[in-house]
Amino acid sequence: QVQLVESGGGLVQPGGFLRLSCAASGSLFSRNTMGWYRQAPGEQRDLVADITSGGSTNYAEAVKGRFTISRDNAKNSVSLQMNSLKPEDTGVYYCNYYNHAVHANYWGQGTQVTVSS
What we know:
Layout: E1 2-7, E2 10-12, E3 18-26, E4 32-39, E5 45-52, E6 57-59, E7 67-72, E8 77-82, E9 91-99, E10 104-107, E11 111-115
Parallel strand pairs: 2-11
Antiparallel strand pairs: 1-3, 3-8, 4-5, 4-9, 5-6, 7-8, 9-10, 9-11
């Protein structure tokens, strides 16, 4: 099992910024992908950004140029710097850990991000 503990999130005005962080613990595997997904009310959970243990990144088109994902392999953590936030960025953000060896997905409890004036 993998446990994910998220921090960050909150209420911010349009144009503002937030930083989300997530720390993984438990049965970790060296080859993994960590990322962030967003779920708005009544909608499915969609990828925002992810990063492999080798450092390759992937972003949703809507956040390119505004969000930056990074990770610290020594601390088994991933962060998401969100700049120039828009109301449509609002939702619950979930940290995800994917173990490539056993094809298993793990999720954090979610953290609310609200962008509103």
